[in-house]
Write a structure and sequence with these properties.
Helix content: 25-40%
Shape: globular
Oligomer: single chain
Strand order of the largest sheet: 3-4-2-1-11-10
Number of strands: 11
Radius of gyration: 21 Å
Length: 348
């Protein structure tokens, strides 16, 4: 039992230290995902050690102390996404319907055939803008009936699990499809005109994940996100970035994206809103995101019901308020951040 606990403790400590190495190889990036899981396992291990407290020697006490430090460090990393932390995006005080926009993001899982379940969830949420990813020609055909209510759309059905379908009740302007980094990995860039005629810039993205069977490096994902961050930073109108980013909300890359874009994360101070994996409760991470500019405030954020996909959909309702930029502030990059971002954008 003691040998098992020693090995388990060392494994947990190493799994926490690995992400501190800023290498793009998948093994270093993937360990950023399970911070909640590592914390739960660390606490469980600490409890197991207590059963042996009368038999513990100096080495055991050192390992136990390191476990306590590990737990405290993980809590520190996770804390900004708990309800005890300060929110980064303020709630709307006075609703202005003509300046409002609601968005639903759903990774449908391409092989999923529950089209009716998806449509039912869309109908229930009734978003102004809907982004569905991992959509092929079958999903395009199955969701075609949405055109009755969503008169504007941009469709990029693909068979490689990176297809995208964007539906909007609001008028779309200058809608374009880009392949920023990799062939076959699209992103949709479009302006959306609200009822007030205020225009918002939307970026819909779904970069590849750093996993050994698909892409062993995070370089392509990081480059695409930072290219979008640069576009968001240069935008003179409000910005929304949505999609399955294949990265967790608390990762080094996501925070670098927020620093370089100047955008805000509505999750901060409100909860994790884990969206993947829908079928395995202990293995859930926040992978589907909506990041917004400082002139937007939050009306509602909600994780929606699953419809046999491996992801839960996400829903956000937002409101444009010009004075919000005086009330909210994002992260600011330092010289090292700028240098790192430039290197990542010029890589691959």
């Amino acid at each position: 039992m003691v040998v098992f606990l020693i090995c388990f403790t060392i494994t947990l400590l190493v799994s926490t230290l690995i992400p501190l190495i800023k290498d793009e190889y998948w093994i270093f990036r993937i360990f950023e995902y399970p911070r909640l899981q590592k914390l739960a396992l660390t606490v469980a291990n600490m409890i197991l050690w207590l059963f042996l407290i009368s038999q513990m020697n100096t080495l055991h006490w050192i390992l136990y102390g390191l476990l306590v430090g590990n737990a405290m460090y993980l809590i520190y990393l996770i804390f900004p996404f708990t309800k005890f932390a300060k929110v980064q995006v303020l709630r709307v005080d006075n609703e202005i319907p003509e300046n409002s926009i609601s968005v639903m993001i759903g990774n449908v899982y391409q092989d999923n055939k529950n089209y009716s379940g998806c449509l039912a969830e869309v109908k229930k949420a009734n978003p102004d803008v809907l982004l569905l990813v991992e959509t092929d020609a079958k999903w395009e055909l199955a969701t075609k009936e949405l055109e009755k209510e969503y008169h504007f759309s941009v469709k990029v059905p693909l068979e490689n699990t990176y297809g995208m379908l964007l539906y909007s009740k609001f008028e779309l302007e200058d809608a374009t499809i880009h392949y920023l980094v990799e062939e076959g990995i699209p992103s949709i860039h479009t302006k959306i005109k609200l009822k007030s005629n205020q225009v918002i810039q939307l970026f819909a993205v779904h970069p590849t994940p750093p996993v050994p069977n698909e892409n062993p490096s995070s370089a392509e994902r990081d480059k695409e996100l930072l290219m979008v961050a640069e576009l968001a930073k240069k935008s003179e109108i409000p910005v929304i970035v949505i999609g399955d980013l294949n990265d967790v909300a608390w990762s080094y890359t996501t925070k670098l994206f927020l620093k370089m874009s100047g955008l805000l994360d509505p999750r901060r101070g409100r909860g994790f809103f884990n969206t993947f994996h829908a079928h395995y409760p202990f293995l859930r991470f926040p992978l589907d995101h909506a990041f917004i500019s400082v002139d937007l405030k939050l009306k509602k954020i909600q994780r929606l019901k699953n419809f046999n996909s491996d992801h839960f959909p996400m829903y956000l309702s937002l409101q444009y308020e010009e004075q919000a930029k005086l009330e909210q502030e994002g992260f600011h990059p330092d010289a090292d951040d700028v240098d790192t971002a430039e290197k990542k954008k010029n890589a691959v």
